Amino acid sequence: MKKIYIAFLVLILLALIIFQFSPSLFKKDKDNAVITIGINTWAGYDPFILADELDMFNQHKVQVEIKRFTSAIDQIQALKDGKIQLAGITMDEAFSLIDSGFKTKIILIVDYSNGGDMLISQANIKNIQQLIGKKVGYEGSVVGEFLLDRALKENNIKRNRIKLVNVAVSDWALHFKEKTVDALVCFNPIASTLLNQYNANILFSSSEIPYEIIDVLIVSESFYAKHKPSITAILKAWFDSIEFQSKNIADAATIITKAKNISVKNYELGLQGLFTQDLKQNKSIFDPKSKNNIYKYSQVIVDFMLSNRLLSRRINTTEAFQSELLYTINTLPSEQLIKP
Length: 340
Fold this sequence. Notes:
single chain; about 350 residues; alpha/beta; D-Maltodextrin-Binding Protein, domain 2; 2 domains; six-stranded mixed β-sheet; 15 helices
């Protein structure tokens, strides 16, 4: 009996030792701190606003703050400084971040642009050839560079034959209205608004290069390693939100337009040419065997950035993309979604 008692004590002692030195084996992510997600004005990130307004994050037991940025540069710096933990940015921006030495994981394909990004011109310019010697405004981002480069190459025009003018997103409408630029690289809803108001022309759009302009959700590698349960909860709320948006478009429009202080028309314009990727599509995109897998399409962006010296090395996309959390999520029945 004494031997059994001693053996029992030894087992208890071993259990305590293991618990002490391996807490990660027993604990879920119990960090109750607020997780901040940085997004910009692109309509593709609106489901984050919708999830926040409908309390979907709390439904999945995670505290989230949505912080909106007008500048991608400020957004990325905030991520580096630890002021935000996740960020919705374009894939090229994610690759630039990785190239700079900041360790990050791409955990979600938010959407891809299929007409939402455009090169538009004043009414008197009908084709790209007429841009030779003219002023073309663009933000100076890699996406702007990429779209413009693809448009010029498709029409055998060298970049030095046009005059580039750096125009901030907030000044797009003003510069186009005052005709300080002859053409503008821009995206919805501003692009469609300018087309309608000034009888502008679409010279080139992302519909001619599908799967090449992609928005993603990223998280720092260190935060990812420590907060997988919370990040999974955020992804669940995201997928709940895009399903709600697809099934309740009028309600979603009311909520988002109020939060962003925009008109319903602008909201609807922002959705044009934007293809949000649901859970099933994300799982397919992250599957290396899939026809439209992200590893293949991302190489187009990597090649462009390398050729334009925007990257110092080829990004290892196998390491950059992380899909393990996606495969732990199952689609929730629609009736479980929160109603406004």
